[in-house]
């Protein structure tokens, strides 16, 4: 189903309960049921309060084809994250590096974490990522934080995005050129 620009929000999935890196790094797995309940709860709140559809930008290593109900039947799209972020109203994320797309396209970001993430040492990354753009992550398992969640995304700050962009995405002062255009220009200048 084609969605016209601006009538959806994107959840940047990280395959949080099944990503193989967690096992390699010796990190404890999240409880699938707790995670799914918490994330679907906030995504439902977003849909209800904003009228926007939530689309899941599925992580490349996710295996939701084995669990199509993982996000309560929401549309799952793999391999088109940059396009989804470019056309959305705002982004919901944990600590995905794909937040760089939200920064590049100046899209508001809602950082979310859960009690299980906090208790298993998985929320530090989220807090650091949120702080890097001047935001604070919301614990969606905290009834108070969940109830106080301001979903007026047009008012969310993006003022620290340039700081993030020039620290992590591109060099200040370079024109908006691709890496290959810059490399080609440098090669031509040295020949």
Beta-strand percentage?
A: 5-15%
Radius of gyration, whole Å: 18 Å
The ordered H/E elements are EHHEEHEHEHHEHHH
Compute the separation of the termini in Å: 51 Å
How many β strands by DSSP? 6
Largest sheet: 6 strands, parallel
> How many helical elements?
9
Percent range of helical residues: 40-55%
The computed structural class is: alpha/beta
Low-confidence stretches: none
Write the layout of secondary structure elements.
Blueprint: E1 8-12, H1 20-24, H2 32-50, E2 53-58, E3 76-78, H3 81-87, E4 91-93, H4 99-104, E5 109-113, H5 115-119, H6 124-132, E6 138-139, H7 143-148, H8 161-169, H9 179-190
Parallel strand pairs: 1-2, 1-4, 2-3, 4-5, 5-6
Could you name the key traits of this structure?
191 residues; alpha/beta; 9 helices
Write up what this structure looks like.
The protein is of the alpha/beta class and 191 residues long. Helix content is 41%, strand content 13%. The chain is built from nine helices and six strands, in the order βααββαβαβααβααα. It has helices at residues 20-24, 32-50, 81-87, 99-104, 115-119, 124-132, 143-148, 161-169, 179-190, and strands at residues 8-12, 53-58, 76-78, 91-93, 109-113, 138-139. A six-stranded parallel β-sheet has the order 3-2-1-4-5-6, with helices on both faces. The longest helix is centred in the first third of the chain and has 19 residues, at 32-50. The mean pLDDT is 88.
């Amino acid at each position: 189903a084609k969605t016209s620009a601006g009538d959806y929000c994107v959840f940047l999935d990280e395959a949080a309960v099944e990503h193989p890196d967690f096992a390699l790094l010796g990190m404890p797995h999240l409880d699938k049921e707790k995670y799914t309940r918490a994330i679907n709860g906030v995504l439902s709140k977003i849909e209800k309060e904003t009228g926007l559809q939530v689309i899941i930008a599925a992580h490349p290593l996710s295996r939701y084809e084995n669990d199509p109900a993982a996000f309560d039947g929401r549309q799952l799209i793999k391999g088109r994250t940059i396009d989804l972020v470019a056309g959305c109203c705002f982004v919901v994320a944990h600590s995905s590096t794909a937040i760089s797309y939200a920064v590049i396209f100046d899209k508001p970001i809602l950082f979310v974490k859960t009690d299980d993430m906090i208790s298993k040492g998985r929320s530090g990354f989220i807090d650091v990522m949120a702080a890097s753009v001047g935001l604070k992550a919301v614990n969606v398992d905290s009834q108070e934080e969940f109830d106080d969640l301001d979903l007026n995304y047009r008012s969310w700050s993006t003022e620290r995005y340039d700081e993030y962009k020039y620290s992590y995405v591109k060099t200040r002062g370079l024109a908006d050129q691709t890496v290959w255009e810059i490399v080609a220009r440098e090669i031509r200048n040295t020949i």
